[in-house]
Amino acid sequence: MIAVHAEHLSKSYRIYPRPSARLQELLSFNRVNRHKDFWAVEDVSFEVERGKTVGIIGVNGSGKSTLLQLVAGILQPSRGTVTAEGRISALLELGSGFNPEFSGRENVFINGALLGLSRAEIESRLGAMERFAEIGEFFDQPVKTYSSGMFVRLAFAVAINVDPEILIIDEALAVGDGIFQHRCMHKILQLKKEGKTIFFVSHDNSAIKRLCDEVILLDGGRRVALGDPDSMVQKYLELMYAREKRYATESNSKSNVDSGGAKNFFDIPPEAVVSTIPNVDHRFGDGRAELLGIEVSGEEGIPKRSFAPGERMQVKISARFKEALETPIIGFIIRDPLGVDLSATNTDYDNAPLGKAKAGEIRTVDFDVQLPLLRPGNYSISPAVADGTAFRHTMCDWIDNAVVFSIETGEFIHGMMRLNISVKVH
Ligand SMILES: Nc1ncnc2c1ncn2[C@@H]1O[C@H](COP(=O)(O)OP(=O)(O)OP(=O)(O)O)[C@@H](O)[C@H]1O
Ligand SMILES: [Mg+2]
Known about the structure:
Elements: E1 2-15, H1 19-27, E2 36-49, E3 53-57, H2 64-72, E4 79-84, E5 88-91, H3 104-114, H4 119-133, H5 148-161, E6 166-170, H6 178-193, E7 197-201, H7 205-211, E8 214-219, E9 222-227, H8 229-254, H9 260-265, E10 283-284, E11 289-297, E12 306-307, E13 312-321, E14 328-335, E15 341-346, E16 362-370, E17 373-374, E18 377-388, E19 393-399, E20 403-407, E21 417-418
Parallel strand pairs: 3-7, 3-8, 5-6, 6-7, 12-20
Antiparallel strand pairs: 1-2, 1-4, 8-9, 10-19, 11-13, 13-16, 14-15, 14-18, 17-21, 18-19, 18-20
The protein binds adenosine-5'-triphosphate (ATP) and magnesium ion.
């Protein structure tokens, strides 16, 4: 049985060049046309069977939230249709659903009534909601006094305790703390088992893989692919990677890094030198040497950004020396999802001395890393080129968070990593 059916679903917004243009249009009784139509969701069709969990992924602004709001009936489509069978409970992006002036308890009653529950039905579930949200006496305080985490806790408690047939969840888990996230995940899995239909938007690829039966990939409001979670997440990463590359090319061409001449001068085959830096959060150093690029790839040397715990990863870093250096070193730091230094290496520390560097010379180093059994999340790499030893050096060029890669697994890893361990029982 089909629970949700969307056909050519589209939503457009009017975009005005200036705020005053809207007024002009209004005052002319729409005889003057000053707006452009912007399609936040365009021509999206799909069918979802009852009991399936559907993930929706895509970069920021690709139309995920708009699509969910259309399915939930909160937005009216500009074109196309969407039909849903059964009671829908939606947990949308922060800010929707609650009246800030009313208390948590009052909002529960208002929301429950909107979802078609009787007062008695709401009262019978109030205890469960209060327990699930676990926000203590704030339950009777106005919602405007809530932290964003408390807000999500209440919203989630309501959404899953109103006995929905279709549950729609937009990103909300990300705001809760670790314990609450686990509690939500547990509850969602339970609802999934009970045969509810679930729509789930998240930037957390592991959660998508763990929860979803099928995934819709959106880009620019359009459905670019629909399929199983693994291949959709892979497609999504490719999409992000292409975007990142475009961004890097643009920002590199803006900075006056001129590596082309030097490359030819020293006759280095261009493919050995990496010349893109995906991201620059912060950069410092005395400028005697300059990082030209960094690339992260898998064992086969093909660039990628998603790894399994324990996989092999190649990190390639190129740097140009503007002056002759006696003891150049090239290396990097890996930071965990919380920004904590996880580990670091460089050519001196791992015994691969570069020798002296001549002025104008470009050097490239390949690091072959066996990743630990890290927990899922986004990790960053900050490369550096310096002069000295691993323990005593002057920094020539350091770039914070130049590349981000993700660790993905459906397996639960407790703490920072899983130990590489063997257990014997006597
Ligand atoms: N009320 C609105 N008026 C005009 N444009 C809008 C409106 N709401 C959304 N948009 C635009 O529609 C596009 C899709 O927005 P949407 O919020 O659906 O993206 P998203 O995929 O949920 O992004 P994110 O990952 O950042 O949550 C964006 O370009 C956004 O600017
Ligand atoms: Mg969104």
